[in-house]
Please model this.
Amino acid sequence: MTQFYIEEQKILLSVDCIIFGFEQNKLKVLIGKRKMDPGRGEWSLYGGFVRNDESIEDAANRTLFELTGMRNMYMRQVGAFGSVNRDPGERVVSVAYYALINVADYNEKLQAEHAVEWVDIAEVPQMFSDHNEMICKARQLMQQKIKTEPISFQLLPSLFTLTQLQRLYEAVNGEEVDKRNFRKRIKDMDFIEKTELIDKQSSKRGAYLYRFNKKMYNEEKNFKL
Amino acid sequence: MTQFYIEEQKILLSVDCIIFGFEQNKLKVLIGKRKMDPGRGEWSLYGGFVRNDESIEDAANRTLFELTGMRNMYMRQVGAFGSVNRDPGERVVSVAYYALINVADYNEKLQAEHAVEWVDIAEVPQMFSDHNEMICKARQLMQQKIKTEPISFQLLPSLFTLTQLQRLYEAVNGEEVDKRNFRKRIKDMDFIEKTELIDKQSSKRGAYLYRFNKKMYNEEKNFKL
DNA sequence: TCAAAAGTGTTAGATTTACACCCATGA
DNA sequence: TCATGGGTGTAAATCTAACACTTTTGA
Model:
């Protein structure tokens, strides 16, 4: 193969994953202590290097799979982070992705193996490199997205109560909403289906379980929260 | 210096600039025919490679300066584009940025030198590599941004008429708006200052010229269009 | 004198917000 | 029997959208 761009400098390229989960009415991110030098022991996102024969997105999916054992997670690019000295070891440009996961689906064994934990988004410690900035940007993007697309269901079990859904919105947006107004908006969205099933976990009386009907959503697409 | 990431593969990294301008009531992008192999002669964005000793953002600013002779342009990242075969020559990952320019400020000599031209966003031809996708994404981001931040003034002369401003919004959003409702919203924003100057270019009667008062905006920040 | 763009308010409809009580159940 | 979370409707306020005529002036 002919070499076209012979004069140019090549650069290390990595991906970093901001994995959001919802647990105990809080929005959380999955982070761990860095296991390599430089920066060993610092809080860090989970990441990996991009290989020459895979797209950045593939690298991100591979990294997510390594960490969670899951494929086809909801994942969106946050952006490229490219300060010269962002990594103390060597020049590394990183492309951040955020992903959404239902915490209950996450394999505890893998979690233990990678020594990562769910940390409340409001209590994220100081992190390695520019990872705080990445988390912040990811959260902003996710907050925007959740207003216009039904991504909340990625963070919940397939059956959920309206109170769970509401608490999720409150956690993501950082402010409480009125229960009746919230439920009115849900009623207008036919693709959020009421089932006949009752959840008895969270209350004595029990609450109806709902599910997201993806097919119906694809026909209607009138999402607004 | 110690090498930390010895095993990893390095990749060519470039930046591509989507430069938006506003001319004849149309939103336009600045593009030219590619001057190097592979892809010589195809329509292309203006870009450049990222050097090892500069941030991606610096590379983008340098590239914009090369093309326009201007510094401190409004510029935002669109994202990283990283398919393996996006560049037919060699594996190149590119980070796209969009920038806003007042067309009248753009040096014609530089434009001729680089052989770039303003093309209506609605009539962008098929382009090299994934540049159509980059433009599309850039436009989406810009459309979102213009709703909540006063970036429109980057595309206009420092003095402008309300009709110009309205036409700009219409061009960006791709739909017409009601003149009276538009002007009502403008009146609520004190940082869009009416001057005593009259523009006689666009009408016999003449129209008041307005200016964006940045200091006043920074105090109020209640932008909404 | 007329064509072309500038400028200006009102009203109906839609959307959003605020708000309080009864229900069902397990402990 | 009572504490806990589940479930429900209405009215006021705000915001949005639709709409038409007069003014100025250069050609």
